[in-house]
Amino acid sequence: MGKFMIGFLHCTLAFAVFLGSASCKKNELISCDEMRDSSKELNGYWRVSQYSDNNQDKTNNFSAITVKFNNSYQFMMYENGIQQTEGSWSIKHGEDFDKLSIVIPFSDKPYKFFSSDWIITAKSSTSITLHNNTNEDEMMRLEKL
Length: 145
Known about the structure:
21% of the residues lie in helices and 41% in strands. By secondary structure, it is of the alpha+beta class. The protein has an eight-stranded antiparallel beta barrel with strand order 1-3-4-5-6-7-8-9. A hairpin with a 6-residue loop joins β5 (82-92) and β6 (99-103). The longest helix is centred in the first third of the chain and has 20 residues, at 3-22. The chain is globular. The relative contact order is 0.19. Mean pLDDT is 74; it is low at 1-32.
């Protein structure tokens, strides 16, 4: 991906996050103030502590995976400490729930499953629980390292 396109995506995401913050409404799952704090709390390295799909525990498939969220909304994924792919992330505020959106280039399989709109169902300063927006039977919990 060219530097222009990456710059364009970062500017677009920053603007989208700004707009989302300006029109934030109360969330039944997590308040908007908590979501703004989530943006700050997401910065850093995380590991997949739990992953299930269609009620099947698949956590072991991700034991070597570490992800990093940074201040400039860049998302990086590492396997056994070696960077495998990168993309972008944002938090989208909604009337009923808020989403963590992760975008990874289409060619970066098998890591593509991260690229989705994840509904934030629980969070703390050390963990965040997500459900896939299009497949509610897919759940991922991340723990901060």
